[in-house]
Amino acid sequence: MLATSHHTTETAQRRNLPALPPRTDDLTSSLPEGKSRVVSAKEHVYREGDPATHVYCVEAGHVCIYRVLPDGRRQIINFAYPGDFIGLGALREHAASALAGAKTRLKSFPVAGLHESARHDTTLGLRLYTAVSEQLAAAHDLLMTVSHRSASERLAAFLLALSRRNGRRGESECEIVLPMTRTDIADFLGLTIETVSRTFTKFRVEGLIDLEQCILVTIRDLEALGMAAGSGVPSEQQLKLAS
Amino acid sequence: MLATSHHTTETAQRRNLPALPPRTDDLTSSLPEGKSRVVSAKEHVYREGDPATHVYCVEAGHVCIYRVLPDGRRQIINFAYPGDFIGLGALREHAASALAGAKTRLKSFPVAGLHESARHDTTLGLRLYTAVSEQLAAAHDLLMTVSHRSASERLAAFLLALSRRNGRRGESECEIVLPMTRTDIADFLGLTIETVSRTFTKFRVEGLIDLEQCILVTIRDLEALGMAAGSGVPSEQQLKLAS
DNA sequence: CGCCGCATTGATCTTATTCAATCTGAGTGG
DNA sequence: CCACTCAGATTGAATAAGATCAATGCGGCG
Known about the structure:
37% helix, Jelly Rolls, homodimer, alpha+beta, 2 domains
């Protein structure tokens, strides 16, 4: 595991995530050895339109996957955390851009090699299929969240998704570090920064969360946040981040 | 090709699509023989939560893929037309429901058989991967459209997507038959029926389209519709329907 | 100290939703 | 055959939610 890295003067560096061992993913284990690649904060791993030569697995840091509309509006499609694959599903060229939000280390796998390996390992194709399928499900979740839900519901669903992600990784479900800016969250949820900020404030005054330095969110009332997310039962079918 | 079918009294029947030869898709050709299945209008091919035992290829008719939020709001994820695959990407159980919008004929393929075939045909896994990847790209397109765009932009993008789909099938790019209801369109674009209806009317009075019986849209000014869709250059990055 | 990026807060405006009424065409039954 | 019904579509008026415009606050870094 990469030692938590040399402090740079980069503002975004304070948002660095603790480097975690990548989850032992079905896919990783069956892949040939990948080369490491490190990109610094605010640097692109790849851009929309680039030939899709590699897929990557995030090992430390985090990456925003996004696309921009011709008029400049940006939609963030996913925040890739350690253990997540990016660049999968790109056919000939990447349909989205991948921007490191902090100094990020990735394992890279040439797609040519992937195709080669698939010829020997008959299960690899299906594993790739499974991996993209998960991303497809996540895209549908995001679609549900973004299309019909109110600002409060979107943000609540977002926080709960991060909470669950933390839980899955054995971290606290109530202490959430937001490595991304308000702008990023807004572009992910299809809102403006102002609305995101206002909604954070609303949750705070309602006692659902605590906020420290915009970065650290403490969930005070998970139950109520669930209600806020789902307008009804606190249960299922919320936003799932691809993970 | 199925003869354009026996007229039923079903209202939705008038919305039936002309039966087309399914596109000779990469995937279809490499699949073992599939059994035919016919479902009538307003009948489910499968429901959210059903075990994902089969994938299907639409041969005639059309199918709405949708999910519902706990509070009842519905998001249509895709309209599957002849040649389109549905049920792909479901891991253990279907994450969405598939409802036939008209009498629909499908070829069904058991997933168990798929896994079996993949063991012999090493390229099948990759083809499945490619197929889901296309759906992922389509989901991202829809996400872009639904999250940041105005009602006019959404509807314009939708009409253009159908126009392009027609073009790809060698049909008229200006005469668009809408086999789905306003409610369906609304649930696809994340709007209300009223807004959809108003926007149709707006396009009509602006001379962008003609409307006959809510079903038949004639594009009068493709250029202007492109502008309406993209607020800027009429070019790329619009809504693409998975097809 | 003062700049700069980011976040917050406020006031106003636009847009789509909501509520409600009307319209249309197709199927139904007297 | 015609009135009736019903589902889907359209239109209008009022409302609410978020976007936009604008100002201020905060924290780190030069």
